[in-house]
Structures are given as C-alpha cells and as structure tokens.
Amino acid sequence: MSQHTPGPWEIAPGNFIVADCRVKGHPETGCVVAEIPCQGGNSADLSLIAAAPELYQALIDVCDILCDYQAYSQTMRKIGRGFSTTDRIGRTDDNVLLAARALLVKVEGK
C-alpha cells in the first residue's frame, strides 16, 4: 500500500483538507493534506476528497466480503444448492470484485 496521511480528513475553512498530524508524531493539531480550488462554491469535491481514507477502507472491506461470498457460493453450487450471483442489471460478483480490485491497484499506485 502506498503511504498516505491517515484519516480522518476534514474540510477546513479556505478549501483545505486537513488531517490530525499527531498520529504521525507531529505536535500540530492539523496539517494540510490538500488545497482544493472550488469554483462556484461547489463543495462536493471537498467532501469526496475528505472521505478518501474511509472510502479506501470500505473498498478493502468490500473486496474481502466479496471473496468470502464467492467461496461460499462456490461451495453451495458444489453441493447442489447453487444460486445465481447475477443481479437484476446483469452484474456478477466476479465483475464487481474485478472492478473493486482494479480500483485498489489504482489507489495503491501499483
């Protein structure tokens, strides 16, 4: 995993994303992670970026759960109690897991 400033990140006045740097051994109460110019007062980008550490962890958890689910569904199919893993719009757990893993690779800079 690439090293990033640990969360939580928060939005601070002046369109800054800040983190509590004490977790990295700094005495400051907050350090700037990013300054995001927001045109037209749109703060959606700020909110999305501030949520990045939690989104990253959620993506890791989704991958773990999907791997467990795939193993369970394969076992159920082997004993004759199979079920469809395709949802109502045609996505399969395989496709979702592949997309999630590809995003993790991108996030981790691999």
What does this entry show, briefly?
This protein has 110 residues and is α+β, with helices and mostly antiparallel strands. The protein has helices at 44-50, 52-78, 93-108, and strands spanning 9-12, 16-19, 31-35.
Could you explain the architecture of this structure?
This protein has 110 residues and is of the alpha+beta class. It has 2 domains: 9-50, no CATH class; 53-108. It contains 3 helices and 3 strands, in the order βββααα. It has helices spanning 44-50, 52-78, 93-108, and strands spanning 9-12, 16-19, 31-35. The protein has a 3-stranded antiparallel sheet with strand order 1-2-3, covered by helices on one side. Helix 2 (52-78) packs antiparallel against helix 3 (93-108). The radius of gyration is 19 Å and the shape is elongated. The mean pLDDT is 78.
List keywords for this structure.
110 residues, alpha+beta, three-stranded antiparallel β-sheet
Helices, strands, pairings?
Blueprint: E1 9-12, E2 16-19, E3 31-35, H1 44-50, H2 52-78, H3 93-108
Antiparallel strand pairs: 1-2, 2-3
Going across the major beta sheet, what is the strand order? 1-2-3
Tell me, rounded to a whole number, the average pLDDT. 78
Low-confidence spans: pLDDT under 50, at least 5 residues?
Answer: none
By secondary-structure content and strand pairing, the structural class works out as alpha+beta
For the record, the count of structural domains works out to: 2
Cα gyration radius (Å)? 19 Å
The number of helices is 3
The helix/strand order is EEEHHH
User: Largest sheet, described in full?
Assistant: 3 strands, antiparallel
